[in-house]
Write a structure and sequence with these properties.
Oligomer: homodimer
Helix content of chain A: 25-40%
Shape of chain A: globular
Number of domains of chain A: 2
Structural class of chain A: alpha+beta
Strand content of chain A: 25-35%
CATH superfamily of the largest domain in chain A: PurM-like C-terminal domain
CATH architecture of the largest domain in chain A: Alpha-Beta Complex
Distance between the termini of chain A: 39 Å
Strand order of the largest sheet of chain A: 7-9-6-10-8-11-12
Number of helices of chain A: 10
Chain lengths: 326, 326
């Protein structure tokens, strides 16, 4: 067996080049952050396990980018701009240098693209599957973090982008996909493989949103959760959910996929509650940031779960509200 | 099989009671931290894998506490007082509620004892071993973080507590231990199981230390690393290393254990470089905090690795410098 680099060499070769100023060259016990004056800090962590949150044979760069992006999505949902991240990486014994090179290259590309440099981490060996935990931290103007619980009656509920692509894409990845054109399949597969965190919308969220969360566990479940935490409800015409062209094609070929789109996870789009007065400015800023937003409901007083309405005006019920990890 | 709580219920039952104000009841996407005015923030992450960093049958409360404490040790080494932590927990499928109850109880006890509440986290399923990543964050007066690279010629190098107990304790845990009294064995086993992070020394480190790091990978290797990063060297009379009474008993029974003590990991004591002028104040503050400190060397100019000196004045070499995870 060729000799392996030790932990310090591994960090120096693969990860130190990704470090920002807070990372101190990854040569210290910890990262050092001078908090931006006038801001609150937002911290979030997400863990990904090979075979659970991604496929072991996914491209290593995509695995790294997904791990960072799901955390960037949380920051964006809180209205926070990224400042940096820490990575805890548990590597199985059979890791290869070319794999780690590609992993670090993907991580570096996103760290650079999103302005979120590596600030520190830990690399350990595991007899189990590759496991990554990213902790990202960001800054939001003091007092402006958008809570899940902040939705008020009368707020318009917006979603960014399109819903359900990743869940349909996962089905395609598992060989359950509908017969649709190859380009549509690829689009949906890519949406599963690589979420698009709405970092560019963070400022508008901080400025305008009463409440916000990212949709990681499915539109229906996450909306239900946000409204419940806010003590409001809604009537949601689900047939007007924003779908991609590929998503529509998939649902046309296999109508059951509409339910998959509505309740499936991994969208990493945002649900944002905006007061009607702020809606024009929010829409204009989203437009300027190149992020499509669609109003899908209006929050109303009441503690009942939201009602999802079909095209015939009748209530639609879903088999389960949300993705559960257990 | 009895029904299992879902992820939200699991968080609500086991972890939400541990949340501090920054954790927002663990009901949001992220933690919210108002940075203490005039402070820099210090962030650190450490991952622990069952079967690698602890024994699968260790008491669950001790596993939780060790995961938090190794991070608190990093904060202390930087002179930072703890503010909170995030926990990413990858749970194997066979987890039991009584196990998780005990885990959360241990975590909560330390979070309370060290003033470091839970601020957020992520709980996922894994087909592999239990894996924990803790990210702890703390505050240090602006500009006062003690770097590994800050040691200056003339500084006195102090170590806290005693060296080697955990490494000898690990040997006992593995059945390789020497014949020593049961109470000594238990002391050494406990030192391996449950490190004592030197949180109470953080303020004195921030006030007085030119450089500092915690000893996680062994005294010899970590001292060598800190001096190299600082561009200084030292002559270290290793026979004067502070040893516990139990450690001395173990070495008396099996002299090879001295090397284990000097190079073995998991001490989680601090190495602090203090200018001679500051030494009396540092010693007085350590004494007031109840933390023994011993001066083990003086930093001198030069880029050579430190020389370790035996009782006969001759140089001692060690089989390897430091614990490597790979």
């Amino acid at each position: 067996m060729p000799s392996r680099p030790g932990e310090d060499e591994l960090i120096a070769r693969f990860f130190a080049p990704l470090a920002g100023p807070a990372g101190l060259g990854l040569l210290d016990d910890a990262a050092l952050l001078e908090p931006p004056p006038g801001d609150d800090l937002v911290l979030t962590t997400d863990a990904l396990v090979a075979g659970v949150h991604f496929f072991t044979d996914d491209p290593p760069g995509a695995i790294a980018r997904k791990a960072l992006r799901v955390n960037l999505s949380d920051l964006a949902a809180k209205g926070a701009r990224p400042l940096g991240f820490l990575l805890a990486l548990a590597l199985p014994g059979d890791w290869r240098e070319d794999w780690l090179n590609a992993f670090a290259a993907g991580l570096g590309a996103d760290a650079s693209a999103y302005g979120c440099p590596l600030a520190g981490g830990d690399t350990v060996a595991t007899p189990g599957p590759l496991t990554l935990s990213v902790t990202a931290f960001g800054a939001v103007p003091a007092g402006r973090m958008a809570r899940r619980s902040g939705v008020r009656p009368g707020d318009r509920i917006y979603v960014t982008g399109t819903i359900g692509d990743a869940a349909i894409g996962l089905g395609i990845r598992l060989g359950r996909g509908p017969e649709i054109p190859k380009a549509d399949k690829q689009f949906l597969l890519d949406r599963y493989l690589l979420p698009q965190p709405r970092v560019a919308l963070a400022k508008a969220i901080a400025m305008h949103a009463h409440g916000c969360m990212d949709i990681s566990d499915g539109f229906v479940g996450d909306l239900t959760k946000m409204l419940a935490l806010s003590g409001v409800t809604a009537r949601v015409p689900v047939y007007r959910l924003p779908l991609s062209q590929a998503g529509r094609a998939a649902i046309a070929a296999k109508p059951d996929l509409f339910v998959v789109a509505a309740i499936g996870g991994d969208d990493y789009e945002l649900l944002a509650a905006i007061a009607p007065d702020s809606a024009p400015a929010f829409e204009a800023e989203a437009n300027a940031a190149g992020i499509p937003v669609h109003c899908v409901a209006e929050a109303i007083e009441g503690y009942d779960p939201p009602r999802f309405i079909g095209p015939d005006g009748g209530q639609v019920t879903f088999p389960r509200g949300s993705y559960s990890h257990f």
